[in-house]
Protein 1
Amino acid sequence: MKIRGALALQKRQVLIFVVLLGLSRAGNINWIFLGNLARDLGLKVDELSSREARVVSDDNKKYLHLDLLNGDLLLNEKLDQEELCGSTEPCVLHFQVVLENALQFFQVELHVKDLNDHSPTFLDNEILIKISEGTAIGTTFLLESAQDLDVGSNSLQNYTISPNSHFYIKIPDSGDRKIYPELVLDRALDYEVEAEVRLTLTALDGGSPPRSGTTLVLIKVLDINDNALEFPQSLYEVQVPEDRPLGSWIVTISAKDLDARNDRKISYTFFHASEDICKTFEINPMFGEVNLRSPLDFEAIQSYTINIQSTDGGGSFRKMHPSS
Ligand SMILES: *[C@@H]1O[C@H](CO)[C@@H](O)[C@H](O)[C@H]1NC(C)=O
């Protein structure tokens, strides 16, 4: 709080107080000392009560208090600039000090300036977002806003995100004076390359220098079934004597899923198999084991070519080529 000046005019004096208001929303009512009216008006302290001094403001708000015992003029600390002036800047309040007898008026101006004494803060120190790796470029994700108890130019002005190759911040024009950040996907995510992305979101206010607050944005990339299954071998060649007993194991094939999720079951089936093959062999769909189902006869058939398909919901197949 600073008193900028007191103009000593005989009839109409104008006193100007400048107060820097740092907002505090908690606690008891405290009073900010603006100045001593008796001294600034050139009166004796007991004159204030004997001449029935009082403070008169247009809107009759009780934000000012004149202490007649010592002449101190006080401002209710719990008021904030927004309450006093709305968004009008500069915030100047006019009021009068009236002495009843003999009648005398003093014009007083109160210049209220918001002090940038609060940093923007986020409610949470981590924001978790789950984004599927197939998500289209340009998709936006609403992020949590920060709070700043200061007003006017000292309030929140901007958001930035730490440098990265996938996202940028957009601040949509919301119509009102509130600003909130949106995260925009700029380059596709790939779970198999990067399963999570950690970014720092910074909120900046308009003070000079600006104050800032940060939060972690943790992006979990969700895997989609974007990789075909792969067989380590494209051809399994097996020789089997014709006198193998029924149920004998012939070969086991296995496919590899390049999608990193392991809760997806791979299953195996014959693919476009002839009646002969279906009659002679069977495959365990879970383990890819091919077993003998009916006797082989070298004189009748000397080789079989079996296509086996493995699937995880997508599809991919390779051949197996047992010969007897
Ligand atoms: C917000 O920050 C970005 C990145 O630093 C900058 O390009 C932009 O001009 C800023 N916007 C405002 C309104 O200050």
Protein 2
Amino acid sequence: MMLFVISLAALACTAAARPSLSYLENHFSAETGEVRSAAIKRLLEVFGMEDPPAVHGHKQAPQYMLDLYNTVADVDGVTKDPYLLEGNTVRSFFDKLHSEQVEFRFNLSTVARTEKVLTAELHLFKLRPQSTLTFNRHHFCQVSVYQLLDTSRNNTQGRKLLSSRLIPVHSTGWEVFIITQAVRSWMVDEGSNLGLHVVVRTLGGSMMDMKLIRFASGRTHHQSKQPMLVLFTDDGRRSTTLESIDPNDTTATATSSLPQTPMSGPSSRTARSLDYSEEEGALPCQRQALYVDFEEIGWSSWIVSPRGYNAYHCKGSCPFPLGQNMRPTNHATVQSIINALKLINGIQTPCCVPDKLFSINLLYFDDDENVVLKHYNDMVAGSCGCH
Ligand SMILES: *[C@@H]1O[C@H](CO)[C@@H](O)[C@H](O)[C@H]1NC(C)=O
Ligand SMILES: *[C@@H]1O[C@H](CO)[C@@H](O)[C@H](O)[C@H]1NC(C)=O
Ligand SMILES: *[C@@H]1O[C@H](CO)[C@@H](O)[C@H](O)[C@H]1NC(C)=O
């Protein structure tokens, strides 16, 4: 099955994309382990990773990230609405400080330098005021989020206002503050990340009693209410097509050359024609199921959702004459005519390949056990055609 995954990833329209499996099994049985690890490494690269994240024990993904995933993707991970997210990555971070004060710090070391920060949000869970204090003349309070600055570097005050808003005193639930500016500056200089400070004032500007306005902290409250930073970014990755694979990349070459092996020997033509008549002769080009099971691949410990997805694959022949249901390109039509007329030797019938591709989304734990939602283009064959 892995070999199909590889050929799908490469989207190669060659006879080599449909290797005879029995040939490969016989040929590679001695090296199966090696092939498997090379194939899985290549598959990780498709998902933009070098190594599988190490996740220890069972962790719970934040509800916000689960809800976001379910809004963006269906159960199979296929994108429901491609315009919902601006970038292709959403990362969540829990506060590392666990301070008694309303101070927070987030470790952003897993964000790649090349990622473009689009929006950063501080999510705080506002608790109900303590009952003894509920009779109070204040109905609203002013909540301000400050970025803490290194006073030894700048002779300004030690903080910079990021966001400020009026919040009803008696409300309870999540409050979101935009802190994009601060996160951009931390991305430029990691050492400048001294954290955030939240100040609550009355409408008159005096300090509010912090027993009245309380936010859940990672220290004393349930995990589901922990302060969280949500970062929307774009990693600049568009799609993994054949063109984007570096020809000098040894892993890419090693794996993509695997299916081509049967073509290199003198017997390749017979292997191909046998393959053709047995498997494809009767069947016109069509889309068939190809389930990529993350559990089978060994990734279920770090992928939260989906458990797997149907990538589909394109299979079947493209004989003359090509009907419109084969969705042929003009080029394919001409090629099939030349093939049928046998005008030139060695011109094969067109290939049955995906002609529409859909994106999928993955919700997973990264190396630092933060939950990440990532969007991947061109992962599911939407339809097949003769090209
Ligand atoms: C952030 O996390 C990384 C990896 O877990 C760690 O190496 C680094 O020391 C952390 N930074 C801070 C400031 O805690
Ligand atoms: C600190 O001052 C330097 C110039 O003196 C400036 O470039 C930098 O943006 C300042 N940092 C902050 C966080 O305001
Ligand atoms: C690949 O390597 C060759 C020499 O080994 C070099 O000439 C060529 O520019 C490289 N191609 C890429 C895309 O790096």
Protein 3
Amino acid sequence: MSQQTARQVSLERAEELKSRIAEYLKVQEDIQTGFKSADTIAAQKKIIMEVLGGTEANWDDWHWQMDNRITDVNVLANIINLSDDEYDVIKDIGQQYRWAISPYYASLMDPDDRSCPIRWLAVPSAFEYSERGELDPMAETTTSPAPAITRRYPDRLIIKVTNQCAMYCRHCQRRRAIGELDKHSTQEQLTQAVEYVRDNPEIRDVLITGGDAFMLEDETIEWLLKELNSIEHVEMVRLGTRTLVTLPQRVTPKLAEILSKYHPVYVNSHFNHPKEVTNEAAVACDRLSRAGVPLGNQAVLLNGINSSAHVMKKLNQELLRIRVRPYYMFHAKVVRGTLHFHPRVETGLEIMEQLRGFTSGMAIPTYIINAPGGLGKTPILPNYLVGWGSDHVMIRTWEGNVVKYPNFEGNVAQNIEVWDDDDED
Ligand SMILES: *Cc1c(COP(=O)(O)O)cnc(C)c1O
């Protein structure tokens, strides 16, 4: 092929690739993002500070944010516009399921638009009355060999340090544990959990979660990291927190410094919608990244919130901009009171299908269904391996081309029989 023809072929292919992204480029303009909404968020913040009687300094103080979480429908009604129906439902559902919204997260809500994804994630709705679904589908109560511990895997486990969160997600899988009161695990329970890790040398990876691990005070986090760090077989610690999304003020320079002393420390967060990726979240993530903490994201696939390939793609791209690597996309669990968010598996597969090839591999999480009964995370993938022969496999590319690929085992002692492309077609 002459150089000229090669260039001509490349140009035609480039045109074809442009056509593959045309639709997304059009649609993404209408997807709400935290960066694009910065002005509206700032305006809402002002209103909320007025309603709560807070100053800028208060706003940046995570304890103030926690003390002023919105838990009263009358306060909420001063921040966003509620219909009479919504007002009644929120007031009533509060008797059954707890709700609380940090002032910061409330500032991301659209005051007028009931379809705002942040409102759906934070504000109770009448769908929660449904009795369908279970309260503990993951059987967490029967996979706890020691206080505060959940163990489902050979070499790693979870320590649940609190039931508290900055905001109670309406899709929460642990709503049974949220109860009426915020409760940290006691010092006694934490000590026993650490002892369990110490006594079981196969545990090399410890996840500190909750609730939200960053609800603990700095001193407790440091104590726990120090203890785990002193156990020789513990090779790494992961902290699970949603504060990067719901309370970025929690990530103070001091907290970042504490984490940096006990590496390797990883932090996984839970962003579900590109509107949650704000300037404030970016500051918190930057602090952790600079402290040497790799950041990951565990999104939950939620019907009507992020259940389209375009929204999910935008979310994962926005996350990479703030140096958060998409890790998992969880299929929502069958938890009572959350079934309106439940997607079909086809939806998740379709999203995975429309990510691979179409955008950076780094923007593609692993899609997971959690097997009921605590049997473990199970990856779900579209089929890319579509056929087998004795010496080849058939693979399907991201654009849907089915191609033959040689399948053989090399042997350094023999001449490798080179598979001949041409006579097979
Ligand atoms: C999710 C989970 C883990 C961590 O799983 P990874 O796939 O390693 O991220 C560990 N223990 C329990 C009980 C879990 O639910």
